[in-house]
Amino acid sequence: MARPVLGARVVSLLALLVLWVSASTFAETHYILSLDVDYNSGTYEGTLAVTYGNPAPEPLAELFFRLYPNAATLYSGSSVEILDARVGDTPVETALYVDDTVLMVPLPKPLPPTQTTSVTLTFRGRASLRLDANPPVTHEYGILTKTPYALVLTSFYPLLAPYLDEGWALDPVGGIGDALFSEASSYDVTVRVDRLPTPIASGFLVDAVQDGDAVIYRFAADHARDFSLVLVSDGRIPRRASVDDLSVRVWFGPDHATAANRALEKARAAVTLYQGLIGPLPYDEIDIVEVPLQHIGGVELTGLVLLSETYTTDPYDLFFDILVSHELAHEWFYAAVGNDPVETPWLDEGLATYLSNVFLAEADSPDIAAGERDRWARSAELARSAHPEIPVTAPLYDFPDSSTYSALAYSGVAFELGAIRERIGDDAFFAALSDYYRTSLFSIATPLDLRRSFEAACGCAIDGALFPGTGTP
Ligand SMILES: [Zn+2]
Q1: For the segment 136-150, what is each residue's pLDDT rounded down to a tens digit?
Q2: Which domains does the chain have, with CATH numbers?
Q3: How much distance in Å is there from the Cα of 271 to the middle of ligand 1?
Q4: Residue 393 CA, ligand 1 centroid: distance in Å
Q5: Dihedral sign computed on CA atoms, order 47, 49, 55, 61
Q6: pTM, two decimal places
Q7: Cα–ligand 1 centroid distance for 344 (angstroms)
Q8: Which residues, chain by chain, have CB under 5 Å from ion ligand 1?
Q9: pLDDT (tens digit, 9 = 90+) per residue, 366-417?
Q10: What is the whole-number distance in angstroms between the Cα of residue 326 and the centre of ligand 1?
């Protein structure tokens, strides 16, 4: 199969800017986050002021926030508690649900559709200290964790749950996959921390002011699904590259120069490829940070990618290329275009897996990419024979374990995407992905959105394994 010709598919930046302007006519939720972090103990205190507009067609009597650090899986060993809650100036009595991962904030008066309210939450939390436990703590990823040289803070503050057509999305945090689910929002963040560690965060650094032995950093981020922060104290400095207006920075440990250089080279090539095929990212900067993780190779966040140091020891292994290019693809499909990671986890995972293979075909060789696609087919077939009742598009909670999930929602879905590409041709396939990206930018996309883009691009009906029961668009 012919490789994609990049120049022919470069999306007009102007067209995308016009779309951003129209997309931003609805008010994004705005977070003002003020944090005091104790780096050595991995604890933090903060105040969150949120301005939220009611997206529902009816009045809302309460708002729901997620407290992911309290989950017994993925984030186990960490915690967050609410010290004070106010709506406007009025103190309110909150309640916890879903294993303390859901915070209900009652509104003194129902909030009419399209109207805005402000909530202020004071909170205190701690990162897990257990990543070095032997044996490893089951189901703990290391995404809210303090280790000797790093404090990783993701999903660490109260995050508003998305309000969907079906109501608030309040799924329990499972033992596999991703949990973080939120609307694209704007952030104004102030972090006070000891001056030793270097901060690496979503968005961009506005300024840094010394305050005694501490530094107060201020960050801003727009259209961000999360604000995530890594503090590192091993003296690492970033390697940088620019792709158009986007800055890519790679932060690896000081002893991992070879891996860092290779990661930067791969990241620059992957971002260039995806910008050409899909469209420009609405962010100024992407940071790629090496940290200790377990059970996972990497994690995608807004403007920030975590890579497990387990896989940076052999940067010439094919999996290193796959990992870097997979996680970067999530900046398009997780961050810029959202989807429900519990009900439709295949949407972003399948696309990231597929795009990573397009990258392999470009950066390594078409034969290597084809070999990887053969591996998808074999692993999906094995999983299907063991679990014929689970479709590749199943919700996260239907998968019995992470290997079955990966074989079906990653490999199986990517294989099906390849079948669609073979059927409709390269031009229609990549035009569809670009259309899906532009039309779903900053929103929470559904399988029907992707199907519509495929059908519009090919002028044909697309059904089959990825789109069962979505009806005729
Ligand atoms: Zn992924």
Answers
A1: 666 789 999 999 999
A2: 7-20+338-458 (1.10.390.10), 30-183 (2.60.40)
A3: 16
A4: 15
A5: positive
A6: 0.93
A7: 13
A8: 349, 352
A9: 999 999 999 999 999 999 999 999 999 999 999 999 999 999 999 999 999 9
A10: 6
